[in-house]
């Protein structure tokens, strides 16, 4: 069991009185039904089975969501997501032999027997999970009231997510990692859209979600399931306040060097941002941002990377023609902050 906290107040230049994140990780999962009755293996995966489209299949426990190791690589043409898995498994004797060879030869991946390719292995003996959250007091960036409960999807890092926000007074966020997988498997087993219940009053709007998709801007849910009602008189008279982005110039190529010693080539595109209402264009608020893209992405934690984002630059950097340098500095600082938050350090040549 490990306990870790981060003081975000040190990063936000004092915009809140308290802003602290916490994690309680490496906790053993109980999984009482699975320990008493054994796991219930089913086929999991993504993608359709039509020829020419990318798809993948593996094995997972339908109750606790634990995957065997290896998880298996099944034929999408033969196995359908949700079906019970009754196929072959890698024998425990060969798994033990592979582990012995790994220890003897210092291998990172175990040698695979020819007859075991694609098969799932044994279930992990002691699956782990964790809890995390954040407490914010007196933040100027958190107006309005909101309460919500979220159920993750089959690819979520957080299985369950809860929050309570009381305007600028107090905000509490709590999430689980792996704990609560039974709920996700029962109520949201397919696809990669997390679902939520939410009530909020913010920006002169009353917003609701009743088992709605979390990315509301991409949602096709009916209005009764997810929507909002505005009681903003300015919006009624002059239209909603919205952002618009206009590319300026051609895409540029830059090299971002991070404090940890690694560097990445990124493509930069300067954009003019506009925030305003359709019938009040003369009052639009203008600013600059730079959208960056990296292929492959820039890692910020083990197994996770970001391949596209945007950073802000000021008018002076654009007028002097130094916006590329300013964007690379801002990008490097942001990625370094995220790495510090997650305790990530990339491998270097000296690490082997």
Features of the shown structure:
352 residues; 9-stranded antiparallel β-sheet; 16% helix
Report strand order across the widest sheet.
1-2-5-8-7-6-9-10-11
Discrete helix count: 6
The end-to-end span amounts to 29 Å
Rg, Cα atoms, Å: 24 Å
Net shape = globular
Percentage of β-strand residues: 35-45%
Sequence stretches where pLDDT stays below 50 over 5 or more residues: none
Biggest sheet: strands, sense, closure?
9 strands, antiparallel
Specify the structural class: alpha+beta
Question: Can you give me a brief rundown of this structure?
Answer:
This protein is an alpha+beta fold and 352 residues long.
What does this structure look like?
It is globular, with a radius of gyration of 24 Å. It has helices spanning about 30-35, 90-105, 180-185, 235-240, 315-320, 325-340; strands at about 1-5, 20-30, 40-45, 55-60, 130-135, 145-150, 160-165, 170-175, 195-200, 205-215, 225-230, 240-245, 250-255, 265-275, 285-300, 305-315. A nine-stranded antiparallel sheet has the order 1-2-5-8-7-6-9-10-11. Strands 12, 13, 14, 15 and 16 form a five-stranded antiparallel sheet that branches. It has a two-stranded antiparallel sheet with strand order 3-4. The longest helix is centred in the last third of the chain and has 20 residues, at about 325-340. Helices cover about 15% and strands about 40% of the residues. The protein has three domains: about 35-115, no CATH class; about 135-230, no CATH class; about 240-350, no CATH class. Strand 14 (about 265-275) and strand 15 form a beta hairpin. The chain starts with a strand and ends in a 10-residue tail after the last helix. The chain is built from six helices and 16 strands. It is α+β, with helices and mostly antiparallel strands and about 350 residues long.
């Amino acid at each position: 069991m490990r306990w870790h906290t981060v003081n975000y107040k040190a990063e936000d230049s004092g915009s809140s009185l308290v802003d602290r994140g916490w994690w309680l990780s490496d906790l053993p999962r109980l999984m009482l039904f699975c320990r008493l009755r054994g796991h219930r293996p089913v086929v999991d995966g993504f993608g359709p089975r039509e020829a020419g489209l990318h798809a993948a299949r593996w094995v997972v426990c339908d109750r606790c969501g634990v995957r065997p190791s290896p998880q298996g690589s099944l034929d999408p043409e033969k196995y359908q997501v949700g079906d019970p898995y009754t196929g072959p498994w890698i024998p425990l004797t060969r798994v033990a032999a592979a582990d012995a060879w790994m220890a003897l030869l210092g291998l990172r991946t175990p040698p695979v027997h020819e007859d075991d390719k694609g098969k799932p292995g044994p279930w992990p003996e002691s699956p782990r999970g964790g809890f995390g959250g954040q407490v914010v007091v007196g933040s100027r960036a958190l107006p309005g009231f909101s309460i919500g409960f979220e159920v993750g999807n089959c690819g979520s890092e957080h299985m369950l997510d809860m929050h309570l926000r009381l305007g600028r007074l107090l905000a509490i966020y709590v999430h689980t990692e792996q704990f609560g997988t039974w709920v996700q498997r029962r109520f949201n087993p397919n696809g990669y859209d997390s679902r939520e219940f939410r009530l909020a009053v913010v920006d002169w709007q009353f917003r609701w979600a009743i088992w709605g998709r979390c990315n509301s801007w991409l949602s096709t849910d009916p209005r009764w399931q997810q929507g909002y009602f505005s009681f903003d008189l300015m919006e009624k008279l002059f239209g909603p306040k919205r952002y618009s982005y206009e590319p300026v110039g051609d895409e540029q190529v830059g090299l971002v060097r991070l404090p940890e010693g690694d560097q990445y080539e990124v493509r930069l595109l300067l954009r003019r941002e506009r925030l305003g209402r359709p019938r009040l264009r003369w009052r639009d608020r203008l600013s600059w941002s730079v959208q960056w893209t990296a292929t492959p992405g820039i890692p910020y934690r083990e197994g996770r990377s970001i391949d596209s984002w945007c950073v802000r630059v000021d008018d002076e950097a654009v007028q002097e023609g130094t916006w590329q340098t300013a964007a690379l500095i801002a990008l490097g600082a942001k990625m370094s902050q995220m790495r510090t938050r997650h305790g990530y350090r990339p491998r270097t040549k000296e690490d082997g």
